């Protein structure tokens, strides 16, 4: 079974700084998707960014970008120019295309700006 | 209106009571899911359904049951609630093979 690990329970940075959230995963599969979701205090779950494993290019969405290292099974999220509205729980998630096709989440990182 | 609607949003109940959390969606997705969120544990999958006739257990299905009444409706039941079922519950939908989940607003359940 796939597992997703976020080793940073909490992080705190100042406005305008850059912060990187770590995520590692364990799988024997070659085709999968990876996601970062954001959960602000409103508790709504919001998709931040998605990465297809077959793509070598790292995904970017405005101030959010990822560092996808397939061989290392690492998928970190970088937030540039942090804003107060970035304060939230961030969840990394793994989706197996070939297997059970269920989204598996990490434990989450609470980010405070 | 939200594409994925959960009711109730908040509920306090007592040990031993039967509770139903309801989920309806207007996205037209075949796949629906129930997750539970606990601090430090992330979101864990309780049950999922890939179509009306397909129901599957997730990693933490004990103590829960589900019903897929229609493509748009997927309810979660706690037959006899216990305090360690106190959590935030999310319903979600997805298209086939995309992995991207569309979440409801969550139902916070407290079992006393």
Brief overview, please?
The complex is a heterodimer of chains A (113) and B (112). With 113 residues, chain A is an all-beta fold.
Short descriptors:
heterodimer, A: mainly beta, six-stranded mixed beta sheet, B: 112 residues, mainly beta
Description:
The complex is a heterodimer of chains A (113) and B (112). Chain A is built from no helices and twelve strands. Chain A is mainly beta and 113 residues long. In chain A, the strands form three sheets. In chain A, strands 2, 5, 6, 10, 11 and 12 form a six-stranded mixed β-sheet that branches. In chain A, strands 3-9-8-7 form a four-stranded antiparallel β-sheet, with no helix packed on it. In chain A, strands 1-4 form a two-stranded antiparallel sheet. Chain A is globular and about 40 Å long. Chain A starts with a strand and ends with a strand. The relative contact order of chain A is 0.34. Chain B has 112 residues and is mainly β. Helices cover 0% and strands 57% of the residues of chain B. Chain B is built from no helices and eleven strands. In chain B, the strands form two sheets. In chain B, strands 2, 4, 5, 6, 9, 10 and 11 form a seven-stranded mixed β-sheet that branches. In chain B, strands 1-3-8-7 form a four-stranded antiparallel β-sheet, with no helix packed on it. In chain B, a hairpin with a 2-residue loop joins β7 (65-70) and β8 (73-78). The interface between A and B is medium-sized, with 21 and 23 residues.
